[in-house]
Structure formats: C-alpha cells, structure tokens
Amino acid sequence: MRIFNDNGMMILPSSFMPELRESNKALVMKACYCPRGHNLVNDKVMFGEFEGILMRVRKGMHEGLLAVSPVYGDKSRISLGMRLDKGDVLILVCPECGVPMPIYDQCTCGGDIRALFTRPVPDFDNCVGICNRVGCHTAELRNGDKLLTYANLES
Ligand SMILES: [Zn+2]
Ligand SMILES: [Zn+2]
How does pLDDT run across 10-64, given as a tens digit for each residue? Predict the structure, then answer.
C-alpha cells in the first residue's frame, strides 16, 4: 500500500466512501479541538477526501500518533510509530501542546471516553467523545443538549 503521496499526505484505503456518497446522513468533523483550542483536524492525514483527526497517543513508555476518521460512524483508525493491540488503553494528547484530552464519561468497556471539543473552547455540550481503548469503537457526538449516537444516526 502506498501511504504517502507527493505532498507527504497520507492516502488511506477508503472502502466506506462509495456508501458515503449515497448517504445524506454522513457527518464529517471539519474541526475539533483540544482543551486549549488547537485544531486536531489535519490535512497531513486524509481519510478518502476528508482531513483526519490527528492526536498523539501514549501507552506506557511508548508514544506514537493516532489518526481517526473525521467521518462520524466510520471506524477507520490508523496508528504510526506505535503498535496498538486490542484492549490497550491509550492516553490521547494534543500533538500541538501535549495536553491530554479530558474524560467525558466512562465507557461500558472499562475504558474512558475522552472529549474532543467541536468548538475552540472546552465545552462538554459540544464535543465528540471517543473511547481510549483499542478495539472499542464507542463514539458519541454531543451537540447542545442532543446526544447523537450511531443508533439514532441510522434511524
Ligand atoms: Zn493543544
Ligand atoms: Zn470503550
């Protein structure tokens, strides 16, 4: 697989893209922020035609990068510089300032749901929550008083 194109960007397999074009329910994060307001959506990592959410991750003594698809409901994730094993619990930090993403909730899997804010100010009413345990695909999107889940996005 060719990962880097001529601009140093990452091109990822995007098997989800054909369905996505058919669907009007797809939500794509155009921006999401660390608690200090750094935008984590980065054009260095592309999921199909969309810029991915790039974070630094730590596990014990190891540190690497984790890119998450900005398409809500798409479970594509890719790690660089670190091997991720199912069940690993990661510390997600801002690649810009190193601040850890705050805990939003406890996940049913035993991991933490960490908040990425959809506005440049930390506001738990406007955030995406993603589980920090590898292999768990729990993600929640909170917008004002509405909690969007995969389930209600489908219906
Ligand atoms: Zn930051
Ligand atoms: Zn979980």
Answer: 555 555 555 554 555 567 888 899 999 999 999 999 988 889 999 999 999 999 9
CB 13 within 8 A of CB 3: no
Q: How many Å apart are CA 106 and CA 141, to the nearest integer?
A: 15
Would 76 be classed as within a structural domain?
yes
| Total of domains in the chain | 1
- Ligand at shortest distance from the CA of 108: 2
Ligand of minimum distance to the alpha carbon of 136 = 2
Output the CA 116–ligand 1 centroid distance in Å.
11
Assess contact for 29 and 118: CB atoms under 8 A.
Answer: yes
pLDDT tens-place string over residues 62-109: 999 999 998 877 888 889 998 889 999 999 999 999 999 999 999 999
Residue 61 tokens, joined: 């003594």
Q: Ligand 2 centroid to 4 CA: how many Å? A: 30
- Ligand approaching nearest to the C-alpha of 38: 1
Closest ligand to 96 CA?
Answer: 1
**1 belongs to a structural domain:** no
